[in-house]
Design goal:
Layout lengths: L10 H24 L3 H17 L6 H5 L6 H12 L4 H12 L3 H11 L12
Helix pairs in contact: 1-2, 2-4, 4-5, 5-6
Length: 125
């Protein structure tokens, strides 16, 4: 009997799965924000924003998974540089716009990303 062979996933399949992954991370971030856990909330919201803005390009899951031994805060701080090593500022700027929707997150991002990505935006003082 011939083994099953799967072709390249279709665009529609990729869009559906990518949307579900993004929605999962968005919902997880909301749950953590409600529990006042900004570390994990920020991490999951960043992954959500990354997935949404990366589509339809391939997602670098290996790089995301490679941070699993780090704390949620360390993952959040390092992911822009890990996912976009040539220009982490692009994701930093995109995420900063998103962070304004949830005020404690905006302050949190500025506090933790300003030392790591000083040239990306004009950080509040």
């Amino acid at each position: 009997m011939e083994p099953l062979r799967f072709g390249k996933p279709s665009y529609a399949w990729s869009a559906a799965v990518g949307t579900l992954f993004a929605l999962h991370h968005h919902n997880a971030s909301n749950t953590f924000f409600r529990a006042d856990d900004l570390d994990r909330g920020a991490y999951h919201r960043f992954v959500d924003v990354y997935l949404v803005h990366r589509f339809p390009e391939p997602v670098q899951w290996e790089e995301i998974v490679s941070t699993s031994s780090l704390s949620a805060l360390e993952r959040f701080v390092e992911l822009p540089a890990i996912l976009e090593p040539r220009d982490p500022c692009q994701m930093v700027r995109i995420f900063m716009r998103t962070a304004r929707e949830y005020e404690p997150l905006h302050e949190y991002v500025a506090q933790h990303w300003a030392p790591r990505y000083p040239r990306c935006v004009s950080w509040p003082r």
